[in-house]
Amino acid sequence: MRGATTVKWAACAVAVALAATACGGGDSGGGGGGADGIVSSSWGDPQNPLEPANTNEVQGGKVLDMIVRGLKKYDPKTGEATNMLAEKIESKDNQNFTITVKDGWTFSNGEKITAKSFVDAWNYGALLKNNQKNAYFFGYIDGYDKVHPETGTASATTLSGLKLVNDKTFTVKLTQKFSLWPDTLGYPAFAPLPKVFFTDHASWVSKPIGNGPYTIDKYAKGSSMNLRKWDDYPGDDKAQNGGIDLKVYTDNNTAYTDLTAGNLDLVDDVPASQLKNVKADLGDRYINTPAGIIQTLAFPFYDKQWNTPGAIKVRQGLSMAINRDQITNQIFQKTRTPASDWTSPVLGDDGGFKKGLCGKECTYNAAEAKKMIQDGGGIPGGQLKISYNADTGSHKEWVDAVCNSINKVMGNNKACVGAPVGTFADFRSQVSQQKLHGAWRAGWQMDYPLIQNFLQPVYYSNASSNDGKWNNKQFDGLINKANAESDKAKAVSTFQDAEKVMVQQMPVIPLWYQNGSAGYSENVTNVSLNQFSVPVYEQIKVK
Amino acid sequence: MGRYVIRRLLQMIPVFFGTTLLIFLMVNVMGDPIAGLCGDRQCDPATAAQLRSEFGLDKPVWQQYLTYMGNVFTGDFGTAFNGQKVTELMATAFPITIRLTVIAIVFEIVIGISLGVVTGLRRGRPIDTTVLILTLVVISIPTFVTGLLLQLLLGVEWGVIKPSVSSEAPLNELLIPGLVVASVSLAYVTRLTRTSIAENARADYVRTAVAKGLPRRRVIIRHLLRNSLIPVVTFIGTDVGALMGGAIVTERIFNIHGVGYQLYQGILRQNSQTVVGFVTVLVLVFLAANLIVDLLYAVLDPRIRYA
Fold it and tell me: Taking the CB of the first residue and of the last residue of chain A, which one, N or C, has fewer CB atoms within 10 A?
């Protein structure tokens, strides 16, 4: 018996040792940037499968930015939409467009890009049964309500507004006049797709094939993606480096630590807690530039007490009670800029950004704020609750600061309180199911650098992201008028007229414009962020 | 012995169903996960409805649970929101966490038990006091502090290790995280072993063994240690499950894409398929570890075999 137990113990020990060494067989090579002109960069796990019309967040968007090119491309510096694969996009009435595709473009697998590559991709993106989360981008095209009805099943499989003319040309018919529509075509959802996407979808999703400056060399879902320069890329924005290694980080603090240890070349999301040290750690290698993101406080207009003439004064008063300068300086270390309109500085003056458009209604003025709120009948329900999700971002800090600012103005410690919600999903479901009866944190990240994109999807009656269900005939009318305007300058100024309606109504309170913040190592140069706060990967040079 | 094992296996069935049902209900109570999938904008109702029916979220919870369990028995753990099979996620996450856990357990056994034996035999001496104070320090410092501190010192300041573990997570990169994961349990193992050894050192059978003239090494290992290990084995056994599930903090700090990371992601995204799948496997690991502990008792103390 004794002998037997000894053997058992020995066997156990051997098993443990074997398991340990066998598991450790993986190669420990790789890692560390710099070699062969490869840039290593932080990444997050994309939430949805990587498909152009199904990617709606930054992490998946980064990859699409490297591997696909559409009809238009936004200039990384100015945001201007210039032709990429489009030879020309013509229209006589701002409703019917004829699009001609350039010659000489192929996918990285050699397949030629034709007008059909676009038409098939757009039809796929719009069709309800394909579950594409960006399907609404095709909503302006005629026949969208047939392939993507609000309820039930689709009665058509292709968009009736899309017609192939020949190999190089196709026509698009929109449901309404929309002069700036061609400028929306730089969004990845409008990218062309190769045949293999439709014939062997599973293999495409596991290793997407595109037509951008990079090709995907290796993709380990949830942990890393290695992109390499595509030598035969026909565009003029060829990659200046050998490739990009994206590495998923569980925590952006760890990514930042890796950067300071010289183990990583690029972090495009400096954690809020490190903003104080970032100057000392990185010096000039820290980037803080405006991005097309605005943060706001939204209100529930489905709740009667917020939809009264008095409540307008209350909202304006609340807006004046928020000390935006102080909060952006102290909490965000100047990575946010106080907002004074509902767009973003990245649009530029020609694009529709107008500093100070909101005027005194968005300027801190304690005495007048208190008077306005009291004139309007006080805060509905006696207390303002600001809901936010507590799981990501540093929402708690700024919501508390905003409340603090309001409480000081009102001379009442309970005038405003934060109402945290556990997860983002739960927060979003409360917002979309109209369960909230106070204010909530809202925000808008632009899809394309157009003033239209900052207004129509968020504030137009029943628009896709009008969560507060605000509606105003005057505002809607101005938006329609602006969309029909063929002269760009006139369209922009009409959009701004619509914004002036918002000053009078204050449906949401603009808080601040968000900057993109990034840091990079000494190995690389020429790093910049575009207006979407995504690094311009193809321009990065390795020393 | 055989009947004992069978009884234990049968007991596992209600525990398994109970825990999975609880987790399933908890994740479902958190609300509608589809709302979070479209970012800061609302999913259009048709797509949301379609996704809900694809993930089976439009059915009553009890029906979801039954279908889910039915699928689990055929080895289908469902699909995560990013389109990956949960079994695929498990195949990448579990080997990494198992490696981390094995390292932690080895640290616990090797360092913990040796320190325990040394201090237990030298009760009251300076080395005993020193180790006791050290273990007290380790127990009182939370693991995330130890983790961040070691990461900063070894990774950034001295450059001995890489601050983050690469996605393949090879053994050598996991040594420091493994030590961090093990640290608190290691201190407990030391203390448990020490007390047990100290207690048994005065037992009659040890005196007899010494009187028989057996060599000191044999007395300590075969007689003293073997009898002192029962509480330690119990602790280490239950710790296996705790380490695998509880490594969330350490995995986050060192960027290890293991079970903790997947669970965290799953909870953030309210992906019940991922969360329930991983927890189901963790429950099985817990149950198996407990079973093995009970069987090891029999090895250590033959009297238990006949119980």
Answer: N
